[in-house]
Amino acid sequence: MTGVEEVEVVVAHSRRATLRVGDVFLKVDGDPAHADVEVRAMAMAPIPTPAILWREPPVLAIAAVPGKALGLLGEPSSASPSAWAAAGAAIRTLHDAPLPQWPGPSLDDVAAELDIECAWLLANAVLPAEVIRRNRKIAEAALRPWEPVFIHGDLQITHVFVDGDEVTGVIDWSEAAPGDAMFDLATLTLGHEERLDDLLAGYGADANRDVIRAWWSLRSLVASRWLIEHGFDPDAPGCEFDVLRSRMRER
């Protein structure tokens, strides 16, 4: 056959899959609530987002955004300091926008999830106990009341696209909700801690660096079991386990 686009599997696990066909991404999710949030969040977000082409549950079709991802977890980011600053400015614009009208994670929910995941990590000995306990202590700084803002909720480095020094699109909005601003900043710089200054040059100097560092530990602790159980490797170079180990060198 001719004229048929190659189908690329971007990500696939038991809960959802994303396929790319040419310049179209097809997101297949068994829970329609995720697509509901994504569609509503992109309509509200005051920053560049992908165009929605059509929706036929359980499939959501969106257009590719121009440019390339800010970087990859586990690899140095080749994006310029100005591109990181532009990402920071875009995130600030999002955080200053009106709140979504659906609930986000509560402090009690985050604390309970952290306890559960740390207990699993210790019981299964996937990391030395001292690494888990040290990061659990660091993570406590994130467990404080926060003033909720409009957060992306899953602002991984591969979800922010830039062309030169301009943000061209932010993708994957299914976790968007009211939440802690420092969580978004920590998620984007997870494994790329050396780019935090560049990011904050655009975001603003009022960011709490201690809380961002706490979220690096907390997110890595909480995400590790899910990654393992869904076929991903948190022990790959530069990924979550390396983030947790790196905290052991801090005093």
Automatic annotation (TrEMBL):
<protein>
    <submittedName>
        <fullName>Aminoglycoside phosphotransferase (APT) family kinase protein</fullName>
    </submittedName>
</protein>
<dbReference type="InterPro" id="IPR011009">
    <property type="entry name" value="Kinase-like_dom_sf"/>
</dbReference>
<dbReference type="Pfam" id="PF01636">
    <property type="entry name" value="APH"/>
</dbReference>
<dbReference type="InterPro" id="IPR051678">
    <property type="entry name" value="AGP_Transferase"/>
</dbReference>
<dbReference type="GO" id="GO:0016301">
    <property type="term" value="F:kinase activity"/>
</dbReference>
<feature type="domain" description="Aminoglycoside phosphotransferase">
    <location>
        <begin position="40"/>
        <end position="212"/>
    </location>
</feature>
<keyword id="KW-0418">Kinase</keyword>
<dbReference type="InterPro" id="IPR002575">
    <property type="entry name" value="Aminoglycoside_PTrfase"/>
</dbReference>
<keyword id="KW-0808">Transferase</keyword>
